């Protein structure tokens, strides 16, 4: 079975390295499925849980990615992530607390409360999406 090398790098370490059969990512332009021998490509990534398939298996390994870039050549996919974690390295309580903080900021912003005036809404929305990416990578149940 054809494979393609995948390397996921965060600023401080190599998070994942393997020969895989498919990677499904969410780019700024939408969802992309990368197979071996894919045409060269560079894409920006939004916060999400990347899906990795190995061999003919349709089971997927999930990796949380906070954002960054993906470079594809026919032999290799390189993900340069602002932050990325394997599920085993994700602190579920930290992700839930980040989600609660982001939701409270977004609610205050839309209600126009005094605290809401200081909220950077784009930053809060991104923090919410990073927390969702981490909880999705854990397969955790939560309300969006
Ligand atoms: P928080 O508000 O909890 O810091 P964040 O989304 O702002 O969350 P990031 O800026 O994306 O955090 O990441 C900062 C660093 O913390 C990165 O090294 C990232 O891997 C790590 N990190 C963030 N959240 C978690 C988590 N829930 N579990 C494990 N590592 C995490």
TrEMBL record:
<dbReference type="GO" id="GO:0005524">
    <property type="term" value="F:ATP binding"/>
</dbReference>
<dbReference type="InterPro" id="IPR036771">
    <property type="entry name" value="ATPsynth_dsu/esu_N"/>
</dbReference>
<dbReference type="GO" id="GO:0046933">
    <property type="term" value="F:proton-transporting ATP synthase activity, rotational mechanism"/>
</dbReference>
<dbReference type="GO" id="GO:0012505">
    <property type="term" value="C:endomembrane system"/>
</dbReference>
<dbReference type="GO" id="GO:0045259">
    <property type="term" value="C:proton-transporting ATP synthase complex"/>
</dbReference>
<keyword id="KW-0375">Hydrogen ion transport</keyword>
<dbReference type="Pfam" id="PF00401">
    <property type="entry name" value="ATP-synt_DE"/>
</dbReference>
<feature type="domain" description="ATP synthase F1 complex delta/epsilon subunit N-terminal">
    <location>
        <begin position="4"/>
        <end position="84"/>
    </location>
</feature>
<keyword id="KW-0813">Transport</keyword>
<keyword id="KW-1003">Cell membrane</keyword>
<comment type="function">
    <text>Produces ATP from ADP in the presence of a proton gradient across the membrane.</text>
</comment>
<protein>
    <recommendedName>
        <fullName>ATP synthase epsilon chain</fullName>
    </recommendedName>
</protein>
<dbReference type="InterPro" id="IPR020546">
    <property type="entry name" value="ATP_synth_F1_dsu/esu_N"/>
</dbReference>
<feature type="domain" description="ATP synthase epsilon subunit C-terminal">
    <location>
        <begin position="89"/>
        <end position="138"/>
    </location>
</feature>
<dbReference type="InterPro" id="IPR001469">
    <property type="entry name" value="ATP_synth_F1_dsu/esu"/>
</dbReference>
<comment type="subunit">
    <text>F-type ATPases have 2 components, CF(1) - the catalytic core - and CF(0) - the membrane proton channel. CF(1) has five subunits: alpha(3), beta(3), gamma(1), delta(1), epsilon(1). CF(0) has three main subunits: a, b and c.</text>
</comment>
<keyword id="KW-0406">Ion transport</keyword>
<keyword id="KW-0066">ATP synthesis</keyword>
<keyword id="KW-0472">Membrane</keyword>
<dbReference type="GO" id="GO:0005886">
    <property type="term" value="C:plasma membrane"/>
</dbReference>
<keyword id="KW-0139">CF(1)</keyword>
<comment type="similarity">
    <text>Belongs to the ATPase epsilon chain family.</text>
</comment>
<dbReference type="InterPro" id="IPR020547">
    <property type="entry name" value="ATP_synth_F1_esu_C"/>
</dbReference>
<dbReference type="Pfam" id="PF02823">
    <property type="entry name" value="ATP-synt_DE_N"/>
</dbReference>
């Amino acid at each position: 079975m054809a494979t393609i090398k995948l390397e996921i790098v965060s600023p401080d370490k190599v998070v994942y390295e393997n020969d895989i059969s498919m990677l499904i990512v969410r780019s700024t332009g939408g969802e992309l499925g990368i197979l071996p021998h894919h045409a060269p490509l560079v894409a920006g990534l939004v916060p999400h849980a990347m899906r990795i398939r190995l061999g003919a298996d349709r089971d997927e390994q999930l990796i949380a990615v906070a954002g960054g870039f993906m470079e594809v050549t026919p032999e290799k996919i390189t993900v340069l992530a602002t932050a990325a974690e394997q599920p085993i390295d994700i602190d579920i309580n930290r992700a839930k607390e980040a989600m609660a903080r982001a939701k409270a900021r977004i609610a205050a912003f839309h209600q126009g409360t005094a605290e809401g005036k200081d909220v950077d809404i784009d930053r809060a929305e991104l923090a919410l999406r990073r927390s969702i990416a981490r909880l999705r990578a854990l397969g955790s149940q939560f309300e969006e």
